[in-house]
Amino acid sequence: MGHSYHQHSGIRLAIAGLGCALLALTGCMGPILRQQSPDAELTEAAAQDNQLVGGVAHPHGMGYMKVEAIGLVTGLNSTGGDPPLSGQRAGLLAEMNRMDIEDPNAVLASPQTAMVMIRGLLHPGIQEGDKFDIEVATMARSETSSLRGGWLMDTRLTETAVLGGQVRKGHPMGLAEGAIMVDPSSGEDGEEGHTTRGRILGGGVAKKSRGLGLIIDHQHQSIRLSQAIGKSINNRFHSYDEGQREGVATPKTDEYVELRLHPRYKDNVSRFMRVVRSIPLRESPSQRQTRLGQLRDQLLDPVTTSTAALRLEAMGDEQAITVLQEGVKSEDAEVRFRAAEALAYLDVTEAVETLANVARDEPAFRAEAFLALSAMDDGVAYEELTELLSTKSAETRYGAFRSIWHMAPGDPLIRSQAITDKFGYHILDVKGPAMVHVTRSHRPEVVLFGKHHRLQTPLVLDAGPRIMINGDGDEIKISRFGVNEPTQQRTVSTDLDAVIRAIVDLGGDYPDVVQMLQQAKETGVLPSRFKVNALPEGGRRHARETENTETTVETGKLKKQENV
Predict the structure, then answer these.
(1) Which residues touch 105 (CB under 8 Å, ≥6 apart)?
(2) I need a labelling partner for 539 at 20 to 30 A (CA). Which of 74, 156, 322, 490 fits?
(3) Name one Pfam family in it (predicted).
(4) If DSSP codes are grouped into helix, strand and coil, which group holds residue 530?
C-alpha cells in the first residue's frame, strides 16, 4: 500500500464524534453535557515557534455549543402530568399553536404527556445533517414520575444566552426527536435511579454547519500574513474536485483564515487543528533539512516524541515519512506509537502493525490507535481490525467494530441488519467469547459478537412499559399490551436474535431492547457477556513495561495489568 494521504475515501461515512465516541461515559446515564473543549487539549508547543502557523494564530470554533429548548414528550404510560403555569409552559403552548396542535392545553394536561427540558452539544466542525445526542429531563415542580416509553416530539433547538437580565434565543441550530432511553435499572418510583431524565441517542440533527478557523494574533495581523498562512496550509492539505485542486484554507481578512476540515481528520478535529498549527510558514530548503534533523532526534526521545510526530505529520513529505518510519522501529513503546499514529494520518501501511498491537495490548493509547486506524484507506488496516474483533478485551472488540464501521459501513461483516430504521443491529460472525454490546451515547446500536446467543428459561422480562417476555422450555412468548388495544403476541425460540426481532415487530424501540437485555443479564438468563458503552477511554496514564504490574491485596503477588 502507498501513502496517498491527499486522497478521499469514498466509503468513509461523514460521522462526527468518533473522537468523542471513544471517550467512555461515567455511569450508565451520566450527563452528556460535559463542558469540554478541544482547545484545552491543543498542545502549545507550536505556539512557541513563530515560524509555525501556531506561533502567529490561534484556533477559532473549537468550543462546544450548547443548544436547548422546551419540548413535549408523548406516549407515556400514565406517568406524565399537567405542568404548572410558567414562562416555559407558555412558550411550549405557543410552539404547539404554531404547529396547529388541536387543544394544546388538554394535550399538556394528559397523563400520557410531559413537558421537558431538552439539551444537546454541537461539537466543533459539526456539519449540517450530522447527528448528536440529546438529554431530556422533566421541569422543576413537574408531576411527571417517569419518562420511560416516551417519545419526544419534533422540537427546534436554539443557542441561548442571558443578555440584559433576559434569556435571549438565537437562530435554530438543530432539531430533536425520538424515543427516550431511561436507565433500565431505575425504578418507576424513582428511588432506584432517575426515571425523569433520559437520552435520545443521535436524536439531534444539526441544521447549520459550524465553522473552523484561525484568528491571527493582534500584533501580527496583516493581509500578507493571512494569505501566507492560507498558502502554507493549502500546500499541505488539499483535495481535487473534478480535477481542480482545492485547499482547505481561505483567507478572509487580515485577522481571520477560514478552515474546512480535511476528510482524513473528520473524526479527530482537535488533531487536525494541532497539525495545522504545526505547519511551517516560511522555510528554506536548508532550514527544512536542519529542522528535519532536529525533529528526528526529538521523535526518538520519549519526552518530546508526541510534539515531534505532529510536526513531522505537518510536513507530510517523503523525508518526514522516512523519519517516522524510523521511529516505528524504536525500542520505546511510546515512540513507536506516536510515530505510527502520525504515519496513519499520512496513510502509510507501516503504521498498521504497531497500532494494532497498541489497540490489543496498551489501554493508555487504545482510543487514539483506533482513531488513527479508522482514518486510513488501507486494506492491511482493515484486515488487522477484523482480527481484533475476536480478542478477549471487550473494548478492543467494540473499538475495532466502530473503526471498521467508519471505514466501510456497508461491509458485509459488520453492516446493520434490515430489521428497523430506528437503531443499528449487527450480528458479527466472529470468533471469541459470545458478547452482546449496546450503546448509551452517539448512535443507538446493538451488536452481537458471534451468531449463537440463547436465553435460558424460565424467564420473565420487560421490554419497555408495554412489552412483556415470558419463557418456559424451548419457547418464548413476547406480548404487547395497550390501553384500548388488542393484545399482540409472538412466539419464538430461545434464540436472542429471534427475541429481538419479535420485540421490534411488535413496535419496540431501542430503549425497549436495551431494557430487555439488561434485565436478562441481571437475572442470569443471558449467558453471553453483556457490555454497555465499552469504548476505549482517552486520558489513561501510560505505564512503562517495568511499571506495568500491580499487587493483589488477596495474595500479595505481582500480576500484569489486565486488558479491559
Answers:
(1) 93
(2) 322
(3) HEAT_2
(4) strand
Please report, as a single letter, which amino acid is at residue 345. Answer: Y
Q: What is the pTM of this model?
A: 0.81
Q: Where are the domains of the chain?
A: 18-38+282-407, 65-206, 424-532
Whether 216 and 253 have beta carbons less than 8 Å apart is answered as: no
Give exposure, 103-141, as e/b (b: 16+ Cβ within 10 Å).
Answer: ebeebbeeebbbbbbbbbbbbbbbeeebbbbbbbbbbee
Other CB atoms within 10 Å distance of the CB of residue 335: 23
Identify the pLDDT of residue 77. 87
pLDDT digits (tens, 9 = 90+) for 520-559: 999 999 999 999 999 887 666 665 543 433 333 332 333 3
Are 341 and 268 within 8 A, CB to CB? Answer: no
Write the CA distances from 440 to 227, 282, 345, 389, 515, integer angstroms: 44, 47, 29, 20, 12
Phi, psi of 317 (to 5 degrees): -105, 180
| Residue 539 confidence (pLDDT) | 61
Reply yes or no on whether the pLDDT at 508 is more than 90.
yes
Residue 334 CA: distances (Å) to CA of 8, 297, 359: 29, 15, 13
Residue 280 has pLDDT above 50, yes or no: yes
pLDDT of 343: 98
> How much is the pLDDT for 116?
95
Sequence-ordered list of residues with C-beta below 8 angstroms from that of 24, at least 6 positions apart, any chain:
533, 534, 535, 536, 537
pLDDT of residue 360: 93
- pLDDT value at 333 more than 70: yes
Q: Fill in the amino acid letter for 280.
A: P
Return the C-alpha cell found at 35: 463542558
Distance CA 330, CA 299 (A): 10
CA angle 226, 231, 234 (to 5 degrees): 125
- Classify the C-alpha dihedral 512-514-520-526 as positive or negative: positive
pLDDT in tens, 102-140: 899 999 999 999 999 999 999 999 999 999 999 999 988
- Collect all residues with Cβ–Cβ distance below 8 Å to 160 and sequence separation of at least 6: 66, 68, 167, 168, 169, 170
Q: Is 192 helix (H, G, I), strand (E, B) or coil?
A: coil
Q: Look at residue 240 and tell me whether its pLDDT is greater than 80.
A: no
Block residue for cell numbers 483564515: 257
DSSP H helices, 115-154, are none
pLDDT-above-70 percentage for the chain = 83
- The CATH fold assigned to 18-38+282-407 is Leucine-rich Repeat Variant (1.25.10)
The residue written with cell numbers 486494506 in the block is 379
Cα–Cα distance between 130 and 122 in angstroms, integer?
A: 9
The C-alpha atoms of residue 431 and residue 416 are separated, in whole angstroms, by: 19
Which pLDDT score, from 0 to 100, does residue 129 have? 93
What CA–CA distances, in Å, run from 250 to 46, 233, 258, 345, 504? 21, 9, 5, 22, 48
Task: Say what the pLDDT of residue 540 is.
Answer: 63
Residue 213: CB atoms within 10 A of its CB come to 18
| CA 352 vs CA 244, 302, 340, 370, 410: distances in Å | 31, 20, 7, 10, 22
